[in-house]
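The instructor's notes for this session suggest beginning with a concrete chain rather than abstract definitions. Hand out the sequence below and ask the class to guess, before any prediction is shown, which regions might be ordered.
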Amino acid sequence: MPSSEIEDRLKWTKQKELDHEGHEKFFNKKYGKAEKLFLKALKAKDDNPKDRHFVYNHLVELYYKLRDERKDALEKCIYYCKEDINRLPEFLRAYKNEYSYIEADVTPRCPSVQQLAIIYEKKEKFQEAIELCNYAINLGLDDGTKGGFEGRKTKLEKKLNLKR
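After discussion, reveal the predicted structure:
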């Protein structure tokens, strides 16, 4: 491991360390162990907005992946999406403070918003998905797709109008 990577790891919080271990377990398809580590990370004494955001998103990814295998997985996925979304302003402040030395307005991707919009769309809850897109647009988020949240919103509005 290069010395700069070792130095970075020495600065890690317990929360980030547990999240990292959980993500390694997830990557190796040890989903039960990953889940336990992610949940333990949320209870870490050094909880902070930035690390918590990444733990939430790993839980969202885990539960969405398990949605067809576990009856409670989709419900838990939605729960952690909402937890992350409710705390996004706090996370974005912490993130931007940490990376304020970068001149460009850096906004990280926030997959929980996109994932919940997809879930709502599949459940034909178009109005809820549109509201999520509006929230993301107001926060200046990008979903990494060609049209962004604006394009997603337009598509959802068309589906909502067809449903009426």
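Then share the key points. The radius of gyration is 17 Å. The mean pLDDT is 90.
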